[in-house]
């Protein structure tokens, strides 16, 4: 069974169509890049999958179910903005996630925070922006979810930190699960992707494996993206 599926999924905000009859299937065990220019519908799609928005028409399914209370236990979501409470310490954050999510591994999270050299008594607001983004990702990836939805996970960190984040994603997700990564930094994430979805003006314009793209076009995903979406 597909872990994430859309059937003629449409989302409108007033007179603006954010997603237009989207059809897609994400199978278990795949890392998928959701790639498109600004305003193409990436974040809207991820919010719909997480149950934060409701479709105008069509269907979106997580493990065969409509997004709701049951699917929230299946999905681990990283939004594209800083959301951690600044007054919490990293130790309190571990307790909070442990209480909130039955599938959260405090041990895994604590080990990764230790590797970053983060003092457990340090408050979130005392951390640099890049460190907060790493901490957010660690919390998300320390769950044993079926679907990880990561919206711009490396957008705000320096290039030297991107390998840490990508390695964290690869090393910590359940191999039977799937990961959907929305990003503009294609050359950085291409090495970890199995499949690619191009989205533009609310429509899926390409759905292929990375290997198929390289075989069919003779180009990297980054090079093909630049060609397709050049100004």
Overview of this protein structure:
The chain has a single domain, classed as 3-Layer(aba) Sandwich (Rossmann fold). A hairpin with a 2-residue loop joins strand 1 and strand 2 (16-26). The chain has helices spanning 42-49, 69-72, 90-100, 106-115, 129-141, 159-172, 186-189, 210-217, 221-228, and strands at 4-13, 16-26, 31-35, 57-62, 75-78, 147-151, 178-182, 195-200, 203-209. The chain starts with a strand and ends with a helix. It is built from 9 helices and 9 strands. Helix 3 packs antiparallel against helix 4 (106-115). The chain has 231 residues and is of the alpha/beta class. The radius of gyration is 18 Å and the shape is globular.
Helix/strand layout:
Blueprint: E1 4-13, E2 16-26, E3 31-35, H1 42-49, E4 57-62, H2 69-72, E5 75-78, H3 90-100, H4 106-115, H5 129-141, E6 147-151, H6 159-172, E7 178-182, H7 186-189, E8 195-200, E9 203-209, H8 210-217, H9 221-228
Parallel strand pairs: 3-7, 3-8, 5-6, 6-7
Antiparallel strand pairs: 1-2, 1-4, 8-9
Helix pairs in contact: 3-4, 5-6
Radius of gyration: 18 Å
Q: Structural class of the secondary elements?
A: alpha/beta
Largest sheet: 6 strands, mixed
Q: Span from first to last CA?
A: 39 Å
Kindly report the spatial arrangement of strands forming the biggest sheet.
Answer: 5-6-7-3-8-9
CATH superfamily: P-loop containing nucleotide triphosphate hydrolases
Total strands: the figure is 9
CATH-defined fold name: Rossmann fold
Number of helices: 9
Number of domains: 1
Which stretches are poorly predicted, pLDDT < 50 over at least 5 residues? none
Percentage of β-strand residues: 25-35%
Order of helices and strands: EEEHEHEHHHEHEHEEHH
């Amino acid at each position: 069974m597909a872990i994430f599926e859309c059937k003629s999924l449409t989302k409108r905000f007033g007179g603006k169509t954010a997603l237009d009859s989207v059809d897609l299937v994400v199978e278990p065990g795949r890392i998928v890049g959701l790639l498109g220019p600004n305003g193409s519908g990436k974040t809207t799609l991820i919010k719909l999958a997480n149950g934060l928005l409701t479709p105008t028409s069509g269907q979106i399914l997580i493990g065969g179910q409509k997004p709701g209370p049951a699917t929230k236990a299946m999905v681990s979501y990283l939004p594209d903005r800083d959301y951690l409470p600044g007054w919490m310490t990293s130790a309190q954050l571990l307790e909070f996630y442990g209480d909130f999510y039955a599938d959260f591994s405090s041990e895994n999270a604590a080990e990764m925070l230790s590797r970053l050299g983060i003092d457990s008594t340090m408050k979130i607001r005392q951390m640099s922006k890049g460190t907060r983004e790493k901490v957010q990702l660690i919390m998300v990836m320390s769950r044993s979810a079926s679907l990880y939805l990561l919206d711009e996970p490396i957008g705000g960190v320096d290039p030297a930190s991107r390998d840490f984040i990508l390695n964290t994603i690869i090393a910590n997700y359940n191999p039977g699960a799937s990961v959907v990564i929305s990003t503009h930094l294609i050359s950085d994430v291409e090495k970890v992707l199995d499949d690619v979805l191009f989205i533009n003006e609310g429509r899926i314009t390409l759905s292929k494996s990375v290997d198929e793209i390289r075989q069919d076009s003779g180009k990297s995903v980054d090079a093909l993206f630049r060609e397709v979406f050049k100004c």
